[in-house]
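As a next step, we paired sequence with structure tokens, yielding the entry below.
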Amino acid sequence: MMPLGHLGLPLMPFLGRRAYKVDPRLLMLGGILPDLIDKPLGHLVLTMNNGRIFAHTLLFAVVLLSAGIVFRKLLPLSLGVSFHHLFDNLYLEPRSTLWPLMGPFQASDFHFSSWLTAFTDPQVFGWELLGILVIMVYLVQKGIRTPRDLFCFAIKGSYPQKIVKGGSRGTDPKRH
């Protein structure tokens, strides 16, 4: 799966829900975090040319879950990472998933051009399309329609004020 799928699909269970205590920004960050860590590290820094290393392991997920239990606000990050692992089908790659129990990470023959050609695969394209659709639906449901609204949501986690009958703005606990 590519970035838009990893960002959008963790939001799916929360579409249409009015109140929940999950920070969607942390959920989305968790959805992409393993790739943000492992792709540069595995392809550019280390010589193994493998983009599924440390952050794609069960150990990483357990450490984040432990941090989330201690610091409750981090639980959505852990949940997002779990979604990432699920969507990457890591259960089919025990050598990476169960590192270090299964030995060292393996080098791969990955080439950067593979990312570009992946978009010609209908399955990859479909997941990306679904991811962007989920993000768009979420933003519309939350009333995020302008760049300023998006900025306030991204930085502060606030949603736009709601307009109530009579044209006045209602009170929103997470307002700008």
